[in-house]
Every structure is written in structure tokens, then in C-alpha cells.
């Protein structure tokens, strides 16, 4: 069972990460939060400090995580403030406009940078550090969209698929160093990022539900987790639809 007493959150102001932060603080964790929007980040940190005890450290800083030159500094700052690193959650990302990306190669590259390459850069640095200390857990929010390319969101899916594959290899590499690597694959989640989508039906989950599952997966060091759990079965079916049929489906 992994201890989550000192955790760095990248993309801390996303709806899922905010809920994860609150639940971690309620369990006694100290947090270092990194987010792009300074006002939202400071509001979150102030909220967490109210919830925390005097023994818990709550701090953070604003940063654009697409600027990979900042990553090493951010990790060092988090380790210094917390006095070590037990866990890391990488939760930043965007939901691209697929139609806009199809007509703009620069936008497509930008979305891949945000959702995949910036994550992989962070992972490379974190993996080396946690490998050296011989303990810890790294969790990343990927997506069920990365399990199979779909015409409605293949730019986003390609980025998440890249992250998922990278995590698979990293998990195998770090297993002998007592470092767990957890891939979180949420399905449909009711967040500001999905505000433009129709949210009717039983497949949608709240950020609080996903946050609870993330913490449990990090504590247990699970390799790959679908949240909510039933998305495992849904994606199993989708992955096995023959290509001749799948390409005619408006998914």
C-alpha cells in the first residue's frame, strides 16, 4: 500500500484534480499544486489550507506546463516544500476541437504537445527521480479515448494513446525499483472541459467519484484503471468491433 503523505499535483485546477486534492488533504496529505491559472490556483490553495491541519504543508505555483524548461524546477520546488515525494498526479490537458484541428496542422501539433509531449517530459524527469529514491507512485490521467481511434476525437485520442503506451513501458521499467505507475482512464466526466457535450444518460460520472477512484488506485499501485469501473467492459466491446463496421459508425 503506497503512502500518499506528500503529493505533487500537476494540472491542479482541473475539476478532477481539485476534487482529488480535497480528498487527499482530508486524509492528511501535504500537497504541492501546479496550475496554469494563477487566480484559480491561489483560490484552490487557500481552500486546501482551510481544510488542512497545522502539520500539513499546502503550497504551489502557477506555470504553463507546455514549457518543458520549467519542469525540473517545478519538481525540485515540490520536493523541497514537501520534504520528499511519495506520489505525483499529472492531470493537465485540454479537449481539442476535432474539426478545428483537422483544418489546422499547427493547432493539431499544439494539442499533441499539451496532451502528450508535455506529460511525457514530466514523466521522464519524475521516473528518474523516483527510481533513484526507490519508492513512490506516479499516476496520470489518460482517457478511454486513447484505446481506439475514433473519427470524432482522434487528435485527442492519439495524444492519450501515446501517453498510455508510454506509461505501459515506464511501468515495466520501474517495477523493480518499487515505483508504481498508474494509468487512469476516465470515461465521460461532468467537468467544465466537457461543457459543450450532451451529458444525459448513466455513463456520466462526477469528478468526486473519479477522484476517489484515483486515490484508491494510487494507494494500491494498480497498473491501469477505468473510472467508473464499467468503462472497462464498454471499451472491451469497442476495441473488438471489426474495422469495416467501426469506420461507418459515427463515434
UniProtKB/TrEMBL annotation:
Entry's transmembrane regions: none
Family, similarity comment: Belongs to the short-chain dehydrogenases/reductases (SDR) family.
SUPFAM superfamilies registered for this protein in UniProt: NAD(P)-binding Rossmann-fold domains
Protein name (record): SDR family oxidoreductase
Source organism phylogeny: Bacteria, Pseudomonadati, Pseudomonadota, Gammaproteobacteria, Oceanospirillales
Keywords for the protein's UniProt record, in alphabetical order: Oxidoreductase
Taxonomic source organism: Chromohalobacter sarecensis
Stored InterPro entries: NAD(P)-bd_dom_sf, SDR_fam
Amino acid at each position: 500500500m503506497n503512502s500518499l503523505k506528500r503529493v505533487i499535483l500537476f494540472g491542479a485546477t482541473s475539476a478532477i484534480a481539485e476534487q482529488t486534492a480535497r480528498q487527499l488533504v482530508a486524509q492528511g496529505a501535504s500537497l504541492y499544486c501546479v496550475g496554469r491559472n494563477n487566480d484559480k490556483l491561489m483560490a484552490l490553495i487557500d481552500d486546501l489550507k482551510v481544510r488542512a491541519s497545522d502539520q500539513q504543508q499546502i503550497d504551489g505555483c502557477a506555470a504553463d506546463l507546455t514549457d518543458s524548461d520549467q519542469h525540473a524546477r517545478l519538481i525540485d520546488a515540490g520536493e523541497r516544500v514537501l520534504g520528499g515525494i511519495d506520489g505525483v498526479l499529472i492531470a493537465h490537458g485540454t479537449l481539442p476541437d476535432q474539426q478545428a484541428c483537422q483544418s489546422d496542422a499547427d493547432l493539431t501539433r499544439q494539442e499533441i504537445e499539451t496532451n502528450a509531449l508535455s506529460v511525457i517530459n514530466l514523466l521522464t524527469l519524475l521516473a528518474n527521480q523516483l527510481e533513484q529514491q526507490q519508492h513512490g507512485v506516479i499516476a496520470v490521467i489518460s482517457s478511454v479515448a486513447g484505446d481506439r481511434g475514433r473519427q470524432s476525437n482522434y487528435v485527442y485520442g492519439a495524444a492519450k494513446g501515446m501517453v498510455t503506451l508510454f506509461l505501459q513501458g515506464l511501468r515495466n521499467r520501474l517495477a523493480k525499483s518499487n515505483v508504481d505507475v498508474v494509468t487512469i482512464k476516465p470515461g465521460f466526466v461532468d467537468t467544465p472541459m466537457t461543457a459543450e457535450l450532451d451529458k444525459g444518460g448513466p455513463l456520466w460520472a462526477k469528478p468526486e467519484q473519479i477522484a476517489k477512484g484515483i486515490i484508491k488506485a494510487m494507494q494500491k499501485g494498480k497498473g491501469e484503471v477505468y473510472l467508473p469501473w464499467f468503462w472497462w467492459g464498454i471499451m472491451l466491446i469497442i476495441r473488438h468491433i471489426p474495422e469495416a463496421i467501426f469506420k461507418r459508425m459515427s463515434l
